[in-house]
Specification:
This protein is α+β, with helices and mostly antiparallel strands and 187 residues long. It has helices at 24-31, 37-40, 129-136, 141-168; strands spanning 13-20, 44-49, 61-68, 72-84, 88-93, 101-109, 115-123. The radius of gyration is 16 Å and the shape is globular.
Length: 187
């Protein structure tokens, strides 16, 4: 990622893509399963559906428990704002109208039968934990945003690689991810 000079109010985004040798329906099974996500994410530790839900649908809510070396531990409530199987799965963090972040998976079928999986995220426009760091050091806002965007880019790459491994794995052959501790993919 190159220097953007973006500020938080610019609502910066990052997107990473990966080709997966599996049909969109199989990739969808993995990417839209929030209970699998802690195995694929360096920060996300656990998730649970809210309101008695056991699976996704538009408007469904889930809580995610996160940990980051610099930020500590925190939990957020997310709302599914796009749900179009097997194409788009997106959620807004905290307030739907003024989210602290928006995350989206987009799946594109490929001519060879595989899938191009994109993961995109947007910071803001609502306040997040990063806002507090910016409040303490406003003169460093652009650097703080840039470092976090680069970190998101790296973590998204790890998440996509883990989804690829799970989606391409044989159902009768355990994935290497099943041996890993949640949140420690790639370490």
């Amino acid at each position: 990622m190159e220097w953007t000079g973006a500020r938080y109010a610019d609502i910066p985004t990052v997107e990473v893509s990966i080709g997966i040798d599996a049909p969109p329906e199989r990739v969808w099974e993995v990417a839209s399963d929030i209970e699998t996500m802690p195995r694929t994410s360096p920060e996300l530790r656990s998730v649970e559906w809210l309101d008695g839900r056991t699976g996704p649908r538009l408007g469904a809510r889930f809580v995610g428990h996160n940990r980051h070396e610099a930020f500590g531990e925190w939990s957020t409530t997310s709302h599914l704002v796009e749900y179009e199987p097997p194409r788009v799965f997106a959620w807004a963090v905290e307030d739907i109208e003024h989210p602290s972040a928006v995350w989206r998976f987009t799946l594109t079928p490929q001519e060879d039968g595989g899938t191009l999986l994109h993961q995109w995220m947007q910071m803001g426009p609502g306040r997040s934990g990063l806002s507090y760091a910016i409040d303490r050091m406003p003169e460093k806002e652009q650097s703080i945003v840039f470092v976090r965007l680069r970190e998101f880019e790296t973590n998204i790459g790890r998440t996509l690689a883990a989804i690829k491994e799970l989606a391409e794995g044989s159902p009768d052959r355990p994935s290497a991810l099943s041996e890993k501790t949640p949140g420690k993919v790639g370490e």
